[in-house]
Write a structure and sequence with these properties.
Largest sheet: none
Number of strands: 0
Distance between the termini: 54 Å
Strand content: under 5%
Number of helices: 9
Order of helices and strands: HHHHHHHHH
Radius of gyration: 19 Å
C-alpha cells in the first residue's frame, strides 16, 4: 500500500496533495467574477454610459461564472460517483456515472465554442477526456493496490495539466500558463486525495476534501469567466 511507495512516487503524490490542501495560497489569475459582482451590486447606482457598460459587463461575467461553476461542480460530482461505484464494484452505477461524466466534459468543452470555435471545442474535449482517463486510471490502481500504476496515473495527470494549461494560455492571454497549471495540479490532487479517502472509508475526511474541491473548481470557473470577459470585451458589453 502507500507506505511501500518508492521515493519518486511519494514525491509526486506529496506534490499533488500539498497543492490540493493549499489552494488558498495559489495566486488567482484575476479577481473573482462573483466577488466583484457582489461588490459592484452593493454600490449606489451611478449615472453615465461608462458606468452602465461596466455594470452590464460585470453582470454577463457573473452569469458566465455561474454557468462555469455549475459545469465544474458537475465534473467533480460525477467523477466522485464513478469512484464510489468502482470501490463498491457496482457496475451499473459505474456505467451510468461514466456516461454523465462524459456528457459533462462535452458541455465544458462546448462552453468555449462561442469564443474559439468548434476545433477548439473538440481539442478541449480531448484534453478533458485525458484528464478523466488519468483520474480513472488512478482510481483503478488505488482499488487494486497497484502502486506502480498509481505512479503512472499520477504522471499522466501531471502531463495532462501541462497540456491543458498550454492550450488555454495560448488561446487566452489572460490565462497565464503557470497559474492555470497550478490550478489544475491542485484539482488533480483533490481527485487523488478523494479517491484515497473513499477507498479507506474515511468519510469525514472526504467530506472536507469535497468542500475544498468545490471551492477550488469555483476558482477555476471564476478565473475563466474573468479571462473571457477581458479578451472578448465586446461580447460582455
Amino acid at each position: 500500500m502507500s507506505q511501500n511507495l518508492p521515493s519518486k512516487n511519494v514525491a509526486n503524490r506529496r506534490r499533488f496533495l500539498t497543492l490540493a490542501v493549499a489552494t488558498a495560497a495559489i495566486v488567482p489569475v484575476s479577481e473573482s467574477a462573483l466577488a466583484r459582482a457582489r461588490h459592484d451590486h452593493s454600490k449606489t447606482a451611478a449615472s453615465g454610459s461608462d458606468t452602465q457598460k461596466n455594470a452590464a459587463s460585470d453582470q454577463k461575467t457573473f452569469q458566465t461564472a455561474v454557468v462555469l461553476r455549475d459545469l465544474w461542480l458537475g465534473h467533480s460530482f460525477w467523477v466522485r460517483n464513478v469512484s464510489v461505484a468502482a470501490i463498491d464494484k457496482n457496475d451499473s452505477a459505474m456505467k451510468a456515472s461514466e456516461k454523465q461524466a462524459v456528457a459533462n466534459a462535452q458541455a465544458i468543452a462546448a462552453s468555449i465554442e462561442p469564443f474559439y470555435g468548434a476545433p477548439a471545442r473538440d481539442k478541449f474535449f480531448k484534453l478533458l477526456a485525458g484528464h478523466y482517463g488519468a483520474v480513472k486510471a488512478y482510481l483503478v490502481a488505488a482499488v487494486a493496490g497497484d502502486v506502480s500504476a498509481e505512479a503512472k496515473a499520477t504522471q499522466s495527470l501531471t502531463s495532462n495539466a501541462d497540456e491543458i494549461a498550454t492550450f488555454l494560455s495560448q488561446a487566452n492571454p489572460y490565462l497565464p500558463k503557470d497559474a492555470v497549471q497550478s490550478l489544475l495540479m491542485a484539482h488533480g490532487g483533490h481527485h487523488i486525495q478523494q479517491i484515497q479517502q473513499l477507498r479507506d472509508r474515511n468519510y469525514d475526511a472526504e467530506a472536507q476534501t469535497w468542500e475544498e474541491m468545490k471551492k477550488h473548481v469555483y476558482q477555476i470557473a471564476d478565473a475563466t469567466a474573468d479571462a473571457l470577459a477581458k479578451q472578448f470585451a465586446k461580447k460582455f458589453s
